[in-house]
Amino acid sequence: MGWRSAIFQAVLVVLGVILGFAVTEWQNDRAEKAEAQHALAGIIEEVGANHAAVKEAHAYHAAKLATLAEAQKTKTPLELRAFDRGFIAPAQLSNAAWTSASEVGALSHLPFDKVLSLSKVYAQQATYMQQQASVANIIYSEIFAEGSQGMLDHAAGLGALISAFRYREQQLETAYAAVIGEHTATMPDDVR
Questions:
Q1: pLDDT tens digits, 18-73
Q2: How far apart are CA 95 and CA 55, in angstroms?
Q3: Cα–Cα distances in angstroms (integers) from residue 87 to residues 19, 39, 67, 76, 191, in the given order
Q4: Nearest CA-CA partner of 90 in 10, 176, 164
């Protein structure tokens, strides 16, 4: 019973350790995938909120372009009160869920194609936000130089700025809708 029993017990111990490692690895993998799916759900929720904000900004800018066109057509001077939310009213967008998922490493547990499509949307969003900062500088410079009436007196320039926002907003609306449709279709029901 001596050496055969010892070998058998050693094999059982080794198998137990290997099985323990396998179970631990399986549990860790499940936890990482669950965290990644939770992060993806948060990102999709954030993209949905950003989509709604961009739609609202797009509608505002469309209305302001119509106001500018009507004033030009009727040769009526523009009034400041026509711009109740400002000459431009860009959407206030968030990237907190994307940044958080990236910082905790949750994105590394998602398929590359999903991360790439989301990354492209957030890159477009960053361009939109950079445009906000640039245009705000232009408008504030004009207001400081000539007052609000200076902006109203340059309706063609103002129209070009607003049109640039509408263009970017249309791009974002399309990108957001595509990524929401793509990712919600492949998410498990318990994560949506």
A1: 877 777 777 767 867 888 899 999 999 999 999 999 999 999 999 999 999 999 99
A2: 17
A3: 66, 36, 11, 17, 40
A4: 164
